[in-house]
């Protein structure tokens, strides 16, 4: 299949500030590449401090003077359902653009577009269904909790599943009555520019949603350090999170940090091995392996280890690597040549640290573009870099264990703590292991499927705070306690 270029691509990607598409104040732009040709297909406005200042001023005005924070939840909910309708109505186009810009397989990009719509529907419903607490001291006092939007929320997002991850922050921030400035990832700015029309057509007032493109160290940094932005919700690498944490400290900002991972999948001998194989293959190779919750370390009990490794490697070899726009494709092109180089660097390191049983280089038949063959290393020791460090590509490390204690020690032996996947039919072991594993989220005998009401977040270097369901509502609102003497 040859390169697929979507029709009607924009001739330039601009900021969206106070209801208008604008260029950067200084006119600066940066190149955006597509991951199949690695050629620049568009220029995007490169935002700096001056652009962030304009966007924050518009968002602050809309918050201080506009109707948005003062609407009844039901009124905001109606508008957000219209946003969800609009996302759903153009999900095929969204998937096409996202797949072109990120290299994600088109079928998986479509799933992410549908999830974006679902995020808006979910928070539109939640703010209407929400109740707040009242406490009564009989004859003396009534106390109630008054939830209030906080102000301008700064939303900083990564390049993996960009549109969906933007929706994950935009929906609760807007549902609770805040106004926002979104700074999307510079590798993948294409789909974010669609939000502007979607929000305007749905009836979101000007200034409530603002978008500033640009590099993290320019536009992102200015947003983090802006005194009129009391909240920063960030998703990205742990090292970037640390920097943002330090930069936000002088302002005592509210921070939500969804960071990196190196999540273990632990397969005990008593597990249903076919299910475990299906799920652990999907867990690291779906979304090109560019997934924060990827089960990128697989720990397997020794008695089934050789059998598991052999069958796993065979499945990995059969994964269809292909053009992102081909519906048959299971692994597409990695997002950017810089990221491709990083992942290929780990593949080479892995060859010195473990036993290569599948892949190990560029995908066969793809001389150009960011295509990495699904790669499996077995017998990887916990000291290995490919065991410890987040690769964020289609590369997995498999390690044997002999006892529950050793499995737990291996599972916890990284700085990260985002997710863990446990495969066993022993109920007691499953719950004991969940209790002891250092992970914000655990899936037992289960694929990575998440109910939107559940908390999402990591421990250790994987994050700070939780989003998801009411946790997002908590993050984006002040809970003022009002005390009344009777
Ligand atoms: P990144 O940290 O390089 O960039 C993320 C965003 O931060 C981008 O918009 C970038 O421009 C911006 N940024 C960079 N430096 C900044 C600075 N100094 N100040 C303010 N903003 C700055 O991450 P990435 O490479 O885009 O994304 C991949 C990472 O994201 C992986 O580590 C992955 O695990 C993580 N991730 C985590 C989750 C989660 O929910 N835990 C979800 C998806 C991705």
Automatic annotation (TrEMBL):
GO terms for biological process: 4-hydroxyphenylacetate catabolic process. Residues 22-482 form the Aldehyde dehydrogenase domain. One of its GO terms (molecular function) is 5-carboxymethyl-2-hydroxymuconic-semialdehyde dehydrogenase activity. Coiled coil: none annotated. The keyword Lipid biosynthesis does not apply. InterPro entries: Ald_DH/histidinol_DH, Ald_DH_C, Ald_DH_CS_CYS, Ald_DH_CS_GLU, Ald_DH_N, Aldehyde_DH_dom, DH_HpaE. PROSITE patterns: ALDEHYDE_DEHYDR_CYS (PS00070), ALDEHYDE_DEHYDR_GLU (PS00687). Belongs to the aldehyde dehydrogenase family. This is 5-carboxymethyl-2-hydroxymuconic-semialdehyde dehydrogenase. It comes from Plantibacter flavus.
């Amino acid at each position: 299949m040859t390169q697929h270029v979507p029709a009607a691509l924009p001739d330039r990607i601009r900021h969206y500030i106070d209801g208008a598409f604008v260029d950067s104040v200084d006119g600066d732009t940066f190149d955006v590449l597509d991951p199949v040709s690695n050629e620049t297909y568009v220029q995007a406005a490169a935002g700096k401090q001056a652009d962030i200042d304009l966007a924050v001023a518009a968002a602050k005005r809309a918050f201080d003077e506009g109707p948005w924070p003062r609407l009844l939840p039901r009124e905001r909910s109606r508008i957000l359902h219209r946003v969800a309708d609009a996302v759903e109505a153009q999900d095929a186009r969204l998937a096409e653009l996202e797949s072109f810009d990120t290299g994600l397989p088109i079928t998986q990009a479509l799933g992410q577009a549908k999830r974006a719509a679902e995020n808006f529907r979910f928070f539109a419903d939640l703010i209407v269904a929400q109740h707040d607490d009242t406490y009564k001291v009989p004859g003396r006092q009534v106390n109630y909790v008054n939830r209030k939007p906080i102000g301008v929320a700064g939303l900083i997002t990564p390049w993996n599943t960009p549109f969906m991850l933007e929706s994950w922050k935009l929906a609760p921030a807007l549902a609770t009555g805040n106004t926002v400035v979104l700074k999307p990832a510079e590798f993948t700015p294409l789909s974010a520019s669609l939000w502007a029309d979607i929000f305007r057509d749905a009836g979101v007032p000007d200034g409530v949603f603002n978008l500033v493109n640009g590099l993290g160290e320019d536009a992102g940094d200015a947003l983090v350090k802006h005194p009129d932005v009391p909240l920063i919700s960030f998703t990205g690498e742990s090292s970037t999170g640390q920097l943002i944490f330090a930069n936000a400290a002088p302002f005592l900002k509210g921070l939500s940090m969804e960071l990196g991972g190196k999540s273990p999948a632990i397969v005990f001998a008593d597990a249903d091995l076919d299910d475990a194989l299906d799920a652990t293959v999907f867990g690291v190779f779906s979304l090109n392996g560019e997934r924060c919750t990827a089960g990128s370390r697989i720990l397997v009990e020794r008695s089934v280890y050789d059998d598991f490794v052999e069958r796993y490697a065979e499945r990995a070899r059969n994964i269809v690597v292909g053009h992102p726009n081909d519906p048959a494709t299971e692994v597409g092109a990695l997002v950017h040549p810089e990221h491709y180089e990083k992942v290929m660097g780990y593949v080479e390191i892995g060859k010195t640290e473990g036993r290569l049983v599948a892949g190990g280089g560029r995908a066969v038949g793809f001389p150009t573009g960011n295509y990495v063959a699904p790669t499996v290393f077995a017998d990887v020791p916990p000291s290995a870099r490919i065991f410890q460090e987040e690769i964020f590509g289609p590369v997995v490390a498999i390690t044997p264990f002999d006892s529950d204690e050793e499995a737990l020690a291996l599972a916890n032996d990284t700085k990260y703590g985002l997710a863990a996947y446990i495969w066993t039919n022993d109920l007691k072991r499953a719950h004991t292991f969940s209790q002891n594993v250092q992970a914000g989220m655990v899936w037992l005998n289960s694929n990575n499927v998440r109910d939107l009401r559940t908390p999402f977040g990591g421990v250790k270097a994987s994050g700070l705070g939780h989003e998801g369901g009411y946790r997002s509502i908590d993050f984006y609102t002040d809970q003022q306690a009002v005390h009344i003497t009777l």
